């Protein structure tokens, strides 16, 4: 028996004996971590030179078992030099992640249009605070479910998460089209769609960290821009179709768009490599790191105030007669359209000067713009403020995954778990933020909402500055 055949048989035997969940790939083989190798790990018997090349690419020493590209005894996920950092397969993952963001955060960013419609038509007897709980729970579940989907992804069930999340998204959207009361809307839109979004979000970020290193912020920024584009397209579709075909069919049309766009990630996204060992759902040891702890705390506080303009700017413009109702409905689309650039340009800069050096000034700007909303007294004024807020707030949403990846440089095999638990904590901020805003609106009016949102973001910027200092020091010119 030749050496290549022996290694192949040893690998098959080792895979059968290991008590590890199997992942089936749609292709017969998966590309090597190094772009220079044209062979897959799971392949037909090769000659000796091919085996040596393969072992060199994967960091496998002679005599080790060559396993399927599912899980190896060598922690190759930690081998930064093996990450392709480009190439067709890598950029296809970015494309797929773009549409996962499009149909997760893009759906969340659309809720402002639903909030305005529910207050005036579908749920006129419900308070703004009660209605905002629907969007808050939806966003909360997107991040909380990530605490589970991260380790599930690490265990090798990316395909299950992708298909399951897609089904829940479409099911929730179709059920929403039949809703007539508050509790029906809560179950369909908040819980069903929220859980579906959560199954997709964390894996979409975690998979990119296995394809990119030095360009990770750019890759995540391009993918995250899908949430802004979704936040532009879905509100426009909702606003234009609603008076023509009604709420039910408008919601179904959005469901059909979800079906079409979710086909792309289901076809093109593939796992490149997984950690060598199973882990617990939580990595509590990460909270012993001051940079990580302050980072999570900073984003938790920031997300409490971040979504005030997204949820309340439309009804604010209508109630204060700053714009006509037709233009007011487009404020959310304007905010999300500028957010596209706020997720790409700053993320590109983050690769050059560091993610902390980008997100901190953008968070300060977002807080100041919240306070500026108090002075808005015309259509032009609120449109300009909303446009700038979309740009700077986009950075606050897109850079947290990149920062967590940077803070996990020496624990790359735990990135999925750390992303999940981080966003589970941040989710609490999203959950309580906009309902608090609704209660403030009922008690004190719109000016108090903008002051509350701005204060939370300014405090967030201070805490993130502490995280940066603990991580890289206090020199302003240090890349961090």
What does this structure look like?
The protein is mainly alpha-helical and 480 residues long. The protein folds into two domains: 3-74, no CATH class; 80-472, MFS general substrate transporter like domains (Growth Hormone, Chain: A), CATH 1.20.1250.20. It is 71% helix and 0% strand. Helix 3 packs antiparallel against helix 8 (182-206) and helix 6 packs antiparallel against helix 16. 55% of the residues are buried.
User: What is the rounded Rg?
Assistant: 23 Å
The secondary-structure class comes to mainly alpha
User: Which parts are unreliable, with pLDDT below 50 for 5 consecutive residues or more?
Assistant: 3-77
CATH fold descriptor of the largest domain: Growth Hormone, Chain: A
Structural domain tally: 2
**In the CATH classification, which architecture of the largest domain applies?**
Up-down Bundle
CATH-defined superfamily of the largest domain? MFS general substrate transporter like domains
Strand content: under 5%
Fraction of residues in H or I helices: over 70%
- How would a textbook summarize the main sheet? none
SSE order: HHHHHHHHHHHHHHHHH
| N-C termini distance | 54 Å
CATH class of the largest domain: Mainly Alpha
């Amino acid at each position: 028996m030749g050496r290549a055949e022996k290694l192949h048989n040893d690998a098959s035997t080792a895979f059968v004996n290991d008590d590890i969940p199997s992942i089936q790939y749609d292709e017969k083989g998966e590309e090597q971590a190094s772009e220079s190798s044209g062979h897959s790990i799971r392949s037909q018997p090769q000659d000796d030179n091919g085996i040596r090349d393969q072992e060199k690419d994967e960091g496998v020493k002679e005599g080790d078992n060559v396993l399927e590209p599912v899980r190896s005894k060598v922690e190759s996920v930690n081998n930064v030099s093996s990450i392709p950092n480009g190439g067709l397969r890598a950029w296809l993952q970015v494309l797929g992640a773009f549409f996962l963001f499009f149909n997760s955060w893009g759906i969340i960013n659309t809720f402002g249009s639903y909030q305005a419609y529910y207050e005036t038509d579908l749920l006129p007897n419900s308070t703004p605070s009660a209605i905002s709980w629907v969007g808050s729970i939806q966003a909360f579940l997107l991040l909380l479910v990530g605490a589970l989907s991260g380790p599930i992804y690490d265990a090798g069930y990316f395909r299950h998460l992708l298909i399951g999340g897609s089904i829940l998204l479409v099911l929730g959207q179709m059920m929403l089209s039949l809703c007539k009361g508050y509790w029906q809307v809560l179950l369909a839109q908040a819980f069903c769609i929220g859980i579906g979004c959560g199954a997709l979000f964390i894996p979409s970020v975690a998979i990119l960290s296995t394809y990119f290193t030095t360009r990770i912020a750019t890759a995540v920024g391009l993918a995250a821009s899908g949430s802004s584009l979704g936040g532009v397209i879905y509100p426009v579709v909702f606003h234009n179709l609603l008076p023509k075909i009604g709420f039910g069919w408008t919601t179904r049309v959005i469901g059909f768009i979800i079906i079409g766009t979710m086909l792309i990630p289901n076809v093109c996204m593939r796992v490149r490599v997984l950690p060598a060992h199973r882990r617990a759902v939580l990595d509590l040891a990460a909270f012993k790191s001051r940079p990580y702890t302050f980072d999570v705390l900073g984003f938790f506080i920031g997300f409490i105030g971040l979504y005030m303009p997204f949820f309340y700017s439309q009804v604010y413009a209508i109630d204060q007669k700053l714009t006509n109702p037709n233009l007011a409905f487009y404020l959310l689309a304007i905010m999300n359209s500028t957010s596209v650039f706020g997720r790409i340009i700053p993320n590109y800069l983050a690769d050059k000067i560091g993610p902390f050096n980008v997100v901190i000034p953008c968070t300060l700007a977002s807080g100041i713009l919240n306070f500026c909303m108090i002075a808005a007294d015309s259509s032009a004024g609120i449109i300009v403020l909303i446009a700038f807020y979309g740009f700077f707030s986009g950075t606050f949403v897109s850079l947290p995954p990149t920062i967590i990846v940077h803070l996990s440089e020496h624990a790359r095999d735990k990135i999925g778990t750390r992303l999940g638990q981080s966003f589970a904590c941040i989710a609490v901020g999203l959950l309580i933020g906009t309902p608090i805003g609704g209660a403030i609106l009922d008690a004190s009016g719109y000016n108090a909402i903008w002051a509350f949102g701005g204060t939370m973001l300014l405090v967030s910027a201070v805490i993130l500055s502490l995280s940066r200092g603990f991580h890289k020091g206090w020199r302003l010119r240090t890349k961090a």
